[in-house]
Every structure is written in structure tokens, then in C-alpha cells.
Amino acid sequence: QVQLVESGGGLVQPGGSLRLSCAVSGISISINPMGWYRQAYGKERELVAAIRSGGSTNYADSVKGRFTISRDNAKNTVYLQMNSLKPEDTAVYYCQCPIGFGYWGQGTQVTVSS
Prior knowledge:
The chain is an all-beta fold. The protein has strands at about 5, 10, 20-25, 35-40, 45-50, 55-60, 65-70, 75-80, 90-95, 105, 110. The strands form 2 sheets. Strands 2, 4, 5, 6, 9, 10 and 11 form a 7-stranded mixed β-sheet that branches. Strands 1-3-8-7 form a 4-stranded antiparallel β-sheet, with no helix packed on it.
């Protein structure tokens, strides 16, 4: 059974950093693309960052230079390092794999506030 479990969210001040983790079971992240999405309250879900099996990445313009997606194949875990956080980064962050019907984690809340 495929499961994606996010962790690492919380409350952080503007300018601070967080690292989100997505522990994956049932599929290998080394041969599949993975992504991070976020959904702010009352807004649509948007793609934040993606990584392909070959290691190439892409980012939303709003997070370029601040966020980094990476993976640890041995741990079958995907990460999102978030630096220089802004209040507008406040959202529920979701881990996703697009294969098959698509797989989503349950989400983890990130709140950026002073």
C-alpha cells in the first residue's frame, strides 16, 4: 500500500527556516517523480517544487532561491528545505507522487507569523 507521510511543519517567525520531510512507503522515490504542493486557506492548491528521478528540479517563482527540494533514496524520503520564510508561505504543505491515480500525503501545517 502506498503511503506518504509529511512532517516538520510548525510555527516560525518571518525570516526563519523549516525542513519538511515526506516519508514514502509502497513506491520507490528513486524511480518516480515527487513534488511538494501547498494550499493556503481559501486558495487553490499550487505546485511549490518538483524533483524527477534523474534529479532535475523546478520551483514556483515565488519560492525560487529560498526553497530546495531533495531526496534521500536510502531512506525513501523527500525533503523541502524552506529558508527566508514569509507570511505568504503560510499554508498546508502536501507531498505528492503523480503516478497511477496520484498519491497524496495528509499535509503538514506551516505558519509564518511574528
